[in-house]
């Protein structure tokens, strides 16, 4: 993963939020969550605009890893950056806290989700569109890797 990413950058492919989300997902799926910190440092030193789907991606990675403190910190950063939490954000955090038996926080998050209206059909449709957009971004990145001969 690291080699492909370095080759992409070397060949002039500028990483964006989708590229970084792909990298975070790959690290998460392979159990290399510790490498996500380096991704976050790279983003801080770039002009990449972070959005709700990206925050959902990293919140999910830390939630699945059981690092609830970092997950919560990222949620706070998300709000500070004016990225609006959506039902994916809440569902991800609810799942993580429930897995650790912290049900009082689960209930707080459920109430917060209900108060934001993120459980509405419209929000669900919008999130499906966002996920499709993320998938299309992943496909475009893979096409670049394949057409540029980056293995």
Distance between the termini: 10 Å
Helix content bin:
over 70%
CATH architecture: Alpha Horseshoe
Rg, please? 16 Å
The count of domains is: 1
Report the top-level CATH class: Mainly Alpha
Number of strands: 0
Q: What composes the largest sheet?
A: none
Secondary-structure element string: HHHHHHHH
Tell the overall outline.
Answer: elongated
Using the coordinates shown, work out and report the CATH topology: Serine Threonine Protein Phosphatase 5, Tetratricopeptide repeat
Mean pLDDT: 81
What do these coordinates show?
By secondary structure, the protein is mainly alpha-helical. It has one domain: Serine Threonine Protein Phosphatase 5, Tetratricopeptide repeat. Helix content is 74%, strand content 0%. It has helices spanning 2-10, 17-29, 36-44, 52-65, 68-80, 87-99, 103-116, 121-147. Helix 5 (68-80) runs antiparallel to helix 6. The longest helix is centred in the C-terminal third of the chain and has 27 residues, at 121-147. It is elongated. The mean pLDDT is 81.
Topology record:
Layout (H helix, E strand, L loop, with lengths): L1 H9 L6 H13 L6 H9 L7 H14 L2 H13 L6 H13 L3 H14 L4 H27 L4
Helix pairs in contact: 2-4, 2-8, 4-5, 4-6, 5-6, 6-7
Any key phrases for this structure?
151 residues, mainly alpha, Serine Threonine Protein Phosphatase 5, Tetratricopeptide repeat, 74% helix, PPR_rpt, Pentacotripeptide-repeat region of PRORP domain-containing protein, TPR-like_helical_dom_sf, repeat
């Amino acid at each position: 993963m690291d080699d492909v990413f370095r080759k992409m950058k070397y060949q002039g492919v500028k990483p964006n939020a989708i590229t970084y989300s792909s990298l975070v997902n790959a690290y998460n799926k392979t159990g290399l969550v510790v490498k996500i910190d380096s991704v976050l440092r790279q983003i801080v030193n770039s002009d990449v605009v972070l959005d709700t789907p990206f925050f959902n991606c990293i919140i999910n990675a830390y939630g699945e890893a059981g690092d609830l403190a970092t997950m919560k910190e990222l949620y706070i950063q998300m709000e500070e950056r004016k990225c609006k939490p959506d039902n994916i954000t809440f569902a991800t955090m609810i799942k993580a806290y429930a897995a650790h038996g912290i049900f009082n926080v689960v209930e707080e998050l459920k109430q917060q989700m209900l108060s934001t209206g993120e459980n509405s059909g419209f929000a669900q449709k919008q999130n499906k569109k966002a996920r499709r957009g993320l998938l299309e971004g992943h496909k475009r990145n893979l096409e670049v890797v394949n057409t540029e001969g980056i293995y």
